[in-house]
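Lab notes, practical 5.
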Amino acid sequence: MDAYARARELIEAAHGADPERTPEGRAAEAVYAERMEAWVARLVPGAPPILRLAARCQHLERWSVPRASFPLDKAGYHAWRRLLYTRQAERARELLLAAGVAADEAASVAVWVSKTGLKTNAGTQALEDAACLVFLEHEILGFVQRHADYAQEKLVDILRKTTRKMSPAALAAARSLPLPEAVAALLHQAMMTPEPRSDSGVA
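Output from the prediction step:
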């Protein structure tokens, strides 16, 4: 077994510890990782093994840092996300090194997972694109339903802040998603309105 295969096994074992389960009984984090890798493979033809592994680390052990462990306000949300980026990046690097992946490749994965160099680092952008598309394809409807009290403009603003982080190729893929009519309308409005000055997103 080569280092990449060993790394995949270690990453999958970490996903398997997620206490949240899908209706089919699978670890939710494992399902998310599969969706991330599938989008990276679609967006980056011939994606190298190290990038595919990085995609599977996007939410690595995210369940271990509950959102409720930070204040439930905007500042708390951003502090939570910053900690997650750092922890997930270091955990990914640790698992890759343990599997025998070269140190420089493990370091690159840590950079991508930490969201460093968005818009300038191709690996970071690939992961961000995939994360945004997973959100739009599989999570946006549930998000809208959970936040039925949100004004339409607030939902549009959330989508705007998400789509502004995406590459042109990812935006084109987003436009082709078979979304419910109401959600598709929100997404269209988000893409057509000017970018906000502040930066935040959902992915």
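Observations recorded by the TA: Residues 65 and 83 are 9 Å apart (CA to CA). DSSP finds nine helices and no strands in the chain.
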